[in-house]
Amino acid sequence: MSDMVVVRKEGLYCVPGQFYIDPWRPVERAIITHAHADHARVGHGHYLSAESGVKVLQSRLGPVNIQGLAYGERINQNGVTVSLHPAGHVLGSAQVRMECGGEVWVASGDYKLESDPTCLPFEPVRCHTFITESTFGLPIYRWQPSQTVYDEINQWWRKNAAEGRTSVLFCYAFGKAQRILAGLDPEIGPIICHGAAQALTEVYRASGVVLPHTVMVGDVGDKAALKTAIVIAPPSAAGSSWMKRFGDYSDAFASGWMLLRGARRRRGVDRGFVLSDHADWPGLMRAIKATEAERVIVTHGSIPIMVRWLQQNGWQAGGFETEYGDDEAADAANDAVNEAVASAAGDDTAGAPHA
């Protein structure tokens, strides 16, 4: 059987099913793994997503023609049996399972294996071919438990509040903001959300996700309360006039890229908290093994390095060039390679992969 999924100029294409997965150009039928902008774009004729992701997609794309599918429910698309399975990335994120002629392929979208109270956990799906992301596909990427990071954030916030200084935490408005909110201690002070984060937080609440009370800065009557508040804001808010209302503040950025010194320098923030909604290197390896796939196709991220490692360790492996990701990710990936080389020069075990 020829490949079930190939790359076309529009995106990843399921040949027998005649549909696309997260296409980057307008197509008639698109299956969307999740609502981040590089995976969910306007202009498609018909959208299919996990049921729990429909409200998020509608909030980001507007009135599109979208069908929601319950996790595990099977439908037939031109002879291909399709089902969606939790990816653990953000609310409504899904892996796409495709079965045709006894062959099973799974396209993972973006995923993480660590538990997250704001979305269902990653579900390993057995398949013959697994299409995996590789955003953090280098051995230097290893995450601490999220509770450890939450404790660090709360400690930082508590210290700032005691000193009468607002805490501003920059993070992506969809997924990361809500995950951080779930780990905050509301006893420390008010929790303020930038409008972009607040709108998506309300979508999460409407979907049944329990999060602490948040307000927008215009709702804070007592300006003195700002001195003990934590502010959740998207990166685009940095340096804007919106920030001036907080006076003296300490800022931080939460991202997996904060593991890298170069990324922290570029952000120019007081603190960097290493928290990612993508799998780290051990997580990627665990996920791949759990699928029992014989063949692995690597997409956006550290494709050549991860493909080579997989080939050296017994997998049939190759890569797909896609249009997912952004320039910041590319810059940070370059930093990662440089830091991995530097670490290996001082410690020959630094770059050794651990599955």
> How large, in whole angstroms, is the Cα Rg?
21 Å
Share in β-strands: 15-25%
Helix content: 25-40%
Major sheet details: 7 strands, mixed
Q: Which term fits the overall shape? A: globular
In short:
The protein has 355 residues and is an alpha/beta fold.
Q: How would you describe the overall organization of this protein?
A:
With about 350 residues, this protein is α/β, with parallel strands linked by helices. The protein has eight helices and 18 strands. It has helices at about 55-60, 145-160, 175-185, 195-205, 260-265, 280-290, 305-310, 325-345, and strands at about 5-10, 10-15, 20, 30, 45-50, 65-70, 75, 80-85, 95-100, 105, 130-135, 165-170, 190-195, 230-235, 250-255, 270-275, 295-300, 315-320. Strands 7-8-9-10-11-17-18 form a seven-stranded mixed sheet. The chain has a six-stranded mixed sheet with strand order 1-2-3-4-5-6, with no helix packed on it. Strand 5 (about 45-50), helix 1 and strand 6 form a beta-alpha-beta unit. The chain is globular, with a radius of gyration of 21 Å. The two termini are about 30 Å apart. Residues about 330-340 and about 340-355 have low confidence and may be disordered.
Spell out the blueprint of helices and strands.
Elements: E1 5-8, E2 11-14, E3 19-21, E4 29-31, E5 46-50, H1 54-61, E6 66-69, E7 74-77, E8 80-86, E9 94-100, E10 103-107, E11 129-134, H2 146-162, E12 166-170, H3 176-183, E13 191-193, H4 195-206, E14 230-233, E15 249-254, H5 261-267, E16 271-273, H6 281-291, E17 295-301, H7 303-312, E18 316-319, H8 327-346
Parallel strand pairs: 3-4, 4-5, 5-6, 10-11, 11-17, 12-14, 12-15, 13-14, 15-16, 17-18
Antiparallel strand pairs: 1-2, 2-3, 7-8, 8-9, 9-10
